[in-house]
Design goal:
440 residues, alpha/beta, TIM Barrel, 4-stranded parallel beta sheet, 3-stranded parallel beta sheet, globular, binds ligand V47
Length: 440
Amino acid sequence: MLILLPMSATTLAIQSPAPARSAVRPGRDSRLDPIVQKVHAGQRLSVDDGLLLYETPDIWSVGSLAHFVRRRMHGDAAYYNINRHLNYSNVCALSCTFCSFYRKKDQPGAYEFSIDRIRAEAIKAAKIGATEIHIVGGLHPWLEFEYYTEMMRAIREAAPKLHIKAFTAVEIVHLARISKRGSLKYEGIKSVLRDLKEAGLGSLPGGGAEVFDDRVHDEAFKGKIRAGTWLDVHRAAHELGLNTNATILYGHIEERADRIKHMEILRCEQDRTLRSWAQSQGIALQEDDAVVLTGPDEMYPRQRLPDPDSCESGYFQTIIPLPFIPDDSALQHLPGPTGLENLRTLAIARLMLDNLPHCKAFWIMHTLEMAQFMLQNGADDIDGTVVWYDITKVGGPSTHQEATVWDLQRAIREAGFRPVERDTLYRSIERDGDAWRVAQ
Ligand code: V47
């Protein structure tokens, strides 16, 4: 409906011609109808569907559809956690063009934490009631493998309840190399993960996936592991019963089609993992080629995912779309993605990755305001309290980037959802001040 408002002659005189209404808010795009039908029926979207979701000017329908899926999976719950990030060293053998975090050994600002410092940080985190410590660093040329296992043991001994989510896939491959187990050999990677798990590692974060494409790899992060090796690390972790997350770092030199390909690769890997777990449990799958979790509840019951307490198999828990933040990187001449592109990419990730249970809007990179809006466009999680974050900085040079529990809950409530504190494995938390336990 078009509403005409009276305007004074002077207002009319100084205004430039009003843009056509369709340029501001486009109408419904009927080309999306078959996609809407598939989503409602719990059917998988194709790569072409993904490309159309990018191409359509009707971003409102894209967001609404992602919201529909997210509500069907999680109802009115929206997750956050009380966590701390710890970046043990920024010294890195690689020089990825998108990264502003790394330093070379003798460069000003290069650092590495002692085990005592890491232990102290873990104790501090546990004291304020954090449930998770998220640890990543650069590929340090001289630290030995024992440093990493000692780090795990020190945290586990000092703060036994704190879940350790640590090391991106490229760090695991680096550890296989320095411990001379054959960095690209599957068994070498798996034995590193086994040692780390035995020392206290609880899960792997989703970082370092960037974009699964060889051209983008060679132009933006040459020297880093390629898609196949990143997936091998996560597969080995899943086989050891460790859950992991997955990211996509977009909005730099990749094309939108590369992002859809990335999502498709992740979806195939999750299918493979869930199918082999289902087979081991004697669970019959309805289809041979897809494990879709986002369909109507009666068709896709929740027991289609391994129980995190059982350690039978791990899986990808959440997709985290990371918008490229250009500041201080070698690609800082690029503008980075816009707010609408961020919204659309998150919504499409929710729709395409039908076999990942969660979709996270990492507020540190999107801002809390935008993450709040993303809750209404496909996200069910905004991550945690964080406090110190070194890898990217939005809105100033400080690494102090903190949201209080009050901030997170307020953002969630205002977006129309019920805040649920979760642990790293998405189990609900019952809390009494700094004391907490996993809800039964
Ligand atoms: O691996 C680096 C990316 C990742 C930039 O698993 C950049 O729960 C944008 O993976 N602009 C680290 N992104 C962050 C990450 C993460 C964050 C929160 C939660 C979880 C989880 C994982 O950030 C890196 C890299 O892919 N990154 N530089 C940049 N300039």
